[in-house]
Amino acid sequence: MVLWASCGLGQESGSDVFGQAEQLYRSNCAACHDNGAGGAPTRAAIGQLTPARIRAALETGVMKPQGDALTPTERGLLAEHLGAKLRVDATAQTKACTGRLELSEAPLWNRWGNSLHNDRYQEVAQGGIAPEQANSLELKWAFAFPDAARARSQPAVTREAIFTGSQSGRVYALGVEDGCVWWTFDADSEVRSAPTLGQDASGRIDRLYFGDFNANVYAVDARSGRLIWKRKVQDHPAGTITGSPTLHKGRLYVPMSSTEVVSAYSPDYECCTFRGGVVALDAADGRPLWRSYTVPPPKRTGENPKGVPSWGPSGAPVWSSPTVDAKRGLIYVGTGENYSSPATDMSDAIVAFDMTSGRTRWVRQTVRGDAWNAACGPKNNRVNCPEEDGPDFDFGAPPILVKLANGRDLLLAGQKSGMIYALDPAAKGRIVWQQRAGMGGFNGGVHWGMATDGRTLYVGIADTPGHLTPTGPPRQGLHAFDVLTGKPLWSRIEPLVCAENKHECRTALSAAITLTDGIVFAGALNGKLMAYSTADGRTLWSVDTHRAFPTINGVKGMGGAIDSAGPVVAGGLLIVNSGYDKFGQIPGNVLLVFGHKERKRP
């Protein structure tokens, strides 16, 4: 949910309703949401949500442990005070599709990475966009997600429908041509993952799989939205699903992350006990098959300076979608930092799990001794900050498995350190080559996803300010490397577009990028959506999504930062979500569909 930071909540009140509500906010939440501590959304972003959604965050969502310290009356008062004052029936103008959704063909774009290998590549022959077509792209339609300040569920696409989740938890099947609604399904909480389409024995699309913020995994009928099964995979109160489940041969491999990294901001929190890992489910009925962890069970390690018990090791979350190596019977994941001391050997690593048993087959760690949480930082309280104090160099993007022309396989991995690596999967992840692409830092380097055609690796770099240990100058923008050797081919550094220290000025590439023949599509933190030439990085086309949009469903639509989910290229269309309210970024709530301009008849 939207309220991310662990603000200390009390029960102070003023003399009137407004004063009482404002005092509740000032005493309990302002320290986090006025300055974005721990990645919390700003108060302005919270104000785009309805009171019902804010109250849900306090009573059943990520803020429930803090909301429990308030009375029901206080929670309601705070939600009404902060929430959007305009009330709109968000479904009143939504156009329903006619007939029944029939899905006979294979998906046009599926999974987070459009393949089991997470390469994020779409051939022109399979529905991509050629370089000469880039200048003819125009907005076909926009859909606004009701009660949302971010849009981050990357769509799955068929010839008939676009499937996507939303911050409210509603999953939509939208008509490709005009955004009409085939069906909706309401999950228990926000759906941040990319939905994955499954196919039956005859190859017909039959199911849609996805996870929600409360760590539920769902299988629904892709044609009707009817629930087939639901399975909760959470084994820790802060456990969640950020990355997209991977479907392969009747199994779902579900990556496990958590919000405990921000829970640690509270000095009264017993930091920390979450263990990252992967859960395997039977795709037919959701039955658990195995669960593997990236850290051993935590033990009590002492007390923090306030006398609250401390625990460790912890963390090493899996933020992104697992990559399948069918030939070796392995799945590969990237892990994040530890949340508490001691730091372990599976954090900041690429890990290979046996897909049948879940046994760890090998680990390749690139940064040792990394433990960090939201209590760290010169402006934070530091009570629960581990002794290692960073550097917070996650592998947030999934590794990419490629086959070279000589028949050799490589795993390509990008890290927040700013480093990129080629690993040998046949030699337990031995590093074949490594190169620096960005300066790195807890807001730097590679965040959500690279792309490759097997010959060239394209790397988007964020490198936004705030780093404690940068290496060199910031290199925000797009970079190309030879896959075989790691040799740098070209770089397109994106300068600031204005002088202020704000996201509106930064054309930094944090969201996953997407490749089609001759073009890399990338969305930036300032809302720009760009098409870069694969030949030299020059800009072929761009559009500013940070603006208001008329929407086909009549809901107020506003674009903002493009982060996390990247552009999707399918059936000659370019589809992207715009709006991201974390870390003080630009909130928004739109799904945008671009296509070729209609030629006028002679």
Structure characteristics:
Thrombin, subunit H, Lipocalin, 8% helix, single chain, Cytochrome Bc1 Complex, Chain D, domain 2, 602 residues, 38 strands, five-stranded antiparallel β-sheet, disordered N terminus, 4 domains, mainly beta, five-stranded mixed β-sheet
Large-scale geometry: globular
From the alpha carbons, calculate the radius of gyration and give it in angstroms: 23 Å
Query: What is the makeup of the main sheet?
Result: 5 strands, mixed
Helical content (DSSP H or I, runs of 4+) = under 10%
Structurally, the number of domains stands at 4
Mean pLDDT: 89
CATH architecture of the largest domain: Beta Barrel
Report low-confidence residues grouped into runs of 5 or more.
Answer: 1-15, 86-92
Between the first and last Cα atoms, what is the distance in angstroms?
A: 52 Å
In what order do the strands lie side by side in the largest sheet? 1-30-31-32-33
* Proportion of strand residues: 25-35%
Number of strands: 38
Give the count of helical stretches.
Answer: 7
CATH top level of the largest domain is Mainly Beta
Which class do the helix and strand fractions yield?
mainly beta
CATH third-level topology of the largest domain: Lipocalin
Report on this model:
The protein is mainly beta and 602 residues long. The protein folds into four domains: 66 residues, Cytochrome Bc1 Complex, Chain D, domain 2 (Orthogonal Bundle), CATH 1.10.760; 246 residues, Lipocalin; 77 residues, Thrombin, subunit H (Beta Barrel); 153 residues, Thrombin, subunit H (Beta Barrel), CATH 2.40.10.480. It contains seven helices and 38 strands. The strands form ten sheets. Strands 1-30-31-32-33 form a five-stranded mixed beta sheet, with no helix packed on it. Strands 11, 12, 13, 14 and 15 form a five-stranded antiparallel beta sheet that branches. Strand 20 and strand 21 form a beta hairpin. The N terminus is likely disordered.
